[in-house]
Structures are given as structure tokens and as C-alpha cells.
Amino acid sequence: GENVEQHPSTLSVQEGDSAVIKCTYSDSASNYFPWYKQELGKRPQLIIDIRSNVGEKKDQRIAVTLNKTAKHFSLHITETQPEDSAVYFCAATPHNTNAGKSTFGDGTTLTVKP
Amino acid sequence: DGGITQSPKYLFRKEGQNVTLSCEQNLNHDAMYWYRQDPGQGLRLIYYSQIVNDFQKGDIAEGYSVSREKKESFPLTVTSAQKNPTAFYLCASSMTSGSGEQFFGPGTRLTVL
Questions:
Q1: Which residues of A touch B49 (CB under 8 A)?
Q2: Cα B23 from chain centroid?
Q3: Which of A25, A38, A82, B42 has the greatest number of CB atoms lying within 10 Å of its CB?
């Protein structure tokens, strides 16, 4: 089955700096890569996603890049703010599973210091 | 945040007892999932269902059971066979037409006393 590794497990940055979280996956059949943000005590929510036919996607201060050859994808947050502090999860979904069964990384705890 | 709900928010159980966690969605989604979240770990899949009256084991199904008698509901039973059931349980749903966003419920925190 799919295996997803996420790094780093914790990340601390100063407000205004950039943050990068990287995930690698093992199944070349994976074609959908979402990123979820989970604030303390709350449910995970999708912040951005990318499909395998696209190399990069951007939404304001958040971007995701995908390298299919190397089987890794990364989340980039620019101009970080204290409200960006949360746990971020990546996931990979093989296209041959029509129920969208995703495998999640272990999460990255991002702390943005004011 | 509406659309998918879980109850109760907190649940306490004595060892040896079965307990059922509720998950309901009004998003008209065909697929539903149960995850377990432990501190410092990601979301581990317990069971998932693609359609009513059908479900499959996930990565950590031992000690758990589910049913999917209605499209809107996907209850999870934590049985006494689950050796370490204390955890945060998240239910999610998604459309089945290919891979896509999963919508999560607020979660149930289960503590075994």
C-alpha cells in the first residue's frame, strides 16, 4: 500500500518568514495530494490540493508543488502569521481507489512566533 | 463547519465495555471514513465505506466494527477487543466520483478508565 512520510515533524518560524513542509510518497499510482490544517482542538480542514497533472498550485500565501518523478510534494507558506500556527497534514490518494482512500503523513506542528 | 457531525464530544468507557460513536452527514456524500488520531501521529484509517451496505477495513480495523445502513450514518463501535482504545476519533465523508476533499467531523475523544 501507499506510504507517506512528512518532514519536519515540528517547525518554528518568525512571523513574516516562509515555512516549507515536505512529503514523500511511495505509490506511483497516487494522483491526488491534499493538505489539511488542524488548529488546536478543531477538525482538519482542506487548505489546498493538487492533482498529478499539475506541477504547482497557488492560493494567496499558500502554494503546493509536486514532483512526480521524485514522488514528493511540498507546502509553502509565505509571510507567515500567528494564525498559521497549527498542525498540517499531507495525504496521497491512488487513482485506482474510487472512494478517495487517502494515506496521511504524521503531521507537522508549525509555530509562528510574533 | 456544518454538514458532518459526531457525538458525543467526550466519552468515557470502562474496560471490557463496547461503545458506539455516532457520525452523521447531510452532504449527500457516498463515501465515509473513520480515523483514529493519537498524539504526534497522523490520521490512521480504521474503516471506510464507499456506498450503503458496504464497507472495507482500513489499516487498523482490529477491535472495531462499523455499519452503513443509511447513506447519512456511519457509526463506529469500539469493542472490548481493542487493546488501547483511548484516542481522538474523527469521522469524514467525501464524494465518490474520483478522489477529492474529505470533510471531517468535530471528533470524539474516547477515554477508557
A1: 99
A2: 7
A3: A25
Pick the residue of A104, A106, A109 with the most B CBs within 10 A to test the interface with B by mutation.
Answer: A104
Rounded distance between C-alpha atoms, residue A1 and residue A25, angstroms: 10
Residues in chain A within 8 Å Cβ distance of B61 = none
What is the C-alpha to C-alpha distance for residues A109 and A89, in angstroms, rounded to an integer? 9
Tell the residue number behind the cell numbers 474516547, with chain if given.
B110
Q: B41 and A97 in contact by Cβ < 8 A?
A: no
* Residues of chain A where predicted confidence (pLDDT) is lower than 70: 95-100
* CA A29, chain centre distance (Å): 18
Query: What SS3 state is found at A4?
Result: strand
Q: Closest Cα of chain A to B74: distance in Å?
A: 15
Q: What is the predicted pLDDT for the residue at A97?
A: 57
What type of residue sits at position A86? A
A32:B106 CB<8 A? no
Which chain B residues have a beta carbon less than 8 Å from that of A100?
31, 94-96, 98-100, 102
pLDDT at B99: 60
Angle among Cα A36, A5, A110 to the nearest 5 degrees reads: 45
The predicted-structure confidence for B32-84, as pLDDT tens digits, reads as follows 999 999 987 889 999 999 889 999 999 999 999 999 999 999 999 999 888 89
- CA B66 centroid distance within chain: 8
Q: How far is Cα A49 from Cα A63, in angstroms, rounded to an integer?
A: 9
Q: Measure the CA–CA gap between A79 and A61, rounded to whole angstroms.
A: 7
